[in-house]
Amino acid sequence: MSPSSPPPIWKHVFNFTRVVFALLVVNKAGGLIYNREFSAGLNKLNSNDLLILAGTFHGVHAITRSLSPLPRPPYGSFAPTDVPVRPTGLEVLESTHFRLTCFQTATGVKFLLLTDPPQPNIDVMLRRIYELYADYVMKNPFYTVEMPIRCEKFDRGLDGYLRVIARA
Amino acid sequence: MSSSRPLSNPSFNSPQSASTPPTAPAVRPPAPSGSAGTPQPGHSGLRYPSNRKTIYDRNLNRSKNAELSRAAFAYLFVEMISYAQRRVTGIADLEKRLNEQGYPLGLKLLDLLLYRSAPSSTQPPTTRPTRILPLLQFITTTLWRHLFSRPADALERSAANAAEYMVSDNEPLVNSYISVPREMSQLNCAAFVAGIIEGVCDGAGLKTVSVSAHWVGEGDGGGAGAKEGMWPGKTIFLIKFAPEVIEREEIMGGKGG
């Protein structure tokens, strides 16, 4: 409510108001195994609601995957494609004030990134997050697959990466 | 332990730096071809690469393209740790097992690295390290460079005990992907590297009582915050030499080096 000073002019010029709100990781059974907030802005959900969100999204994703039409071969090509094309499910869910982007790995782990709608390069960010996951979670001998992620270095890596993004 | 004086800074290259020079293969007769490297035609797989040269048939001096994928090592190390973890009862036991896995590597690396450093034309041939200091120099430069492509970050002598030396590494490569869970926070998987060091020391004839890996960040309150920020994974390898080694070192005194 308080009259805040207008943002500096360069923010408008370069459209630097990028925000990454939170990251959720959902395992292939639909359970929430990681949840971390990076900047305030979203209303807080309690952990139960977060679990429901993860489970519901998982279900909707599965349904949208079976909805997905089979891709047609490119126009003019007669050869059937050798590589089976995996149908993708729901990828982006957008509201006025946030966007939820989903990235599913080959093994069925889903990364859900909650960002500001104008945030660019989300696919690059998700790829980098996947890399961090591969490094600091999957190469950690004390992590059990499908279980909640408690890896200090993964947290630190995400902080290092997403804070830099937010500042850039 | 807190007050200790630095003996040397290994980041300054010693004359016998480990940069393996382009080796002269003529020094060594080529590996006998045939006998060992002829597998049965049906016998294929990892053991026999397509050129039929296993790692045992290779020239010992071959150090070009010998670098390994870090991810491959990380996955192998994960398996080593979980293998050990299934068979132990406590943290100390687990560290001991990792140490034992490293020990034979150290014994062999000592010989291999000394052998490799010999045929350099520009430098005098390296002799076996017979005193403590050259041995530690060898560990912090030659061995470290071979294993991790960089020298160790510091080498210190304990002020409290003359038989104890400390090699420190700010970010041990073996720990680079490992987050130790809170309930096992004492565990340092660099115990594997400690085992390698122990193997090198014992192989050189300087018996050790123990070599162990310790975290730096925890415990003492002073300056812990700064360490936490800069090098959260800083590890110290504490080398305790046997009393007879120290005794011999004192008898030999200043002569030689």
Automatic annotation (TrEMBL), chain A:
Top-level division of the source organism's lineage: Eukaryota
Subcellular location: Endoplasmic reticulum; Golgi apparatus, cis-Golgi network; Golgi apparatus
GO cellular component: endoplasmic reticulum; Golgi apparatus; TRAPP complex
Annotated SUPFAM superfamilies: SNARE-like
Keywords tagged on the record: Endoplasmic reticulum, ER-Golgi transport, Golgi apparatus, Transport
BP-aspect Gene Ontology terms: endoplasmic reticulum to Golgi vesicle-mediated transport
Key word Transport present: yes
Key word Heme present: no
Quaternary structure (record): Part of the multisubunit transport protein particle (TRAPP) complex.
Family membership noted in the UniProt record: Belongs to the TRAPP small subunits family. TRAPPC4 subfamily.
Protein's recorded name: Trafficking protein particle complex subunit
Organism from which the protein derives: Rhizodiscina lignyota
From TrEMBL, chain B:
SUPFAM superfamilies named in the record: Ligand-binding domain in the NO signalling and Golgi transport (SSF111126)
Keywords (A to Z) from UniProt: Endoplasmic reticulum, ER-Golgi transport, Golgi apparatus, Transport
A single GO cellular-component term on record: TRAPPIII protein complex
Function: Plays a key role in the late stages of endoplasmic reticulum to Golgi traffic.
Assigned protein family: Belongs to the TRAPP small subunits family. BET3 subfamily.
Region annotation Disordered: where it falls in the sequence: 1-52
Biased composition annotated in UniProt, kind: Pro residues: 22-32
Compartments reported by the entry: Endoplasmic reticulum; Golgi apparatus, cis-Golgi network
Main location: endoplasmic reticulum
Full protein name: Trafficking protein particle complex subunit
Gene Ontology biological-process entries: endoplasmic reticulum to Golgi vesicle-mediated transport
Residue stretches of biased makeup (Polar residues): 1-13
Self-association state and partner proteins as the record states: Part of the multisubunit TRAPP (transport protein particle) complex.
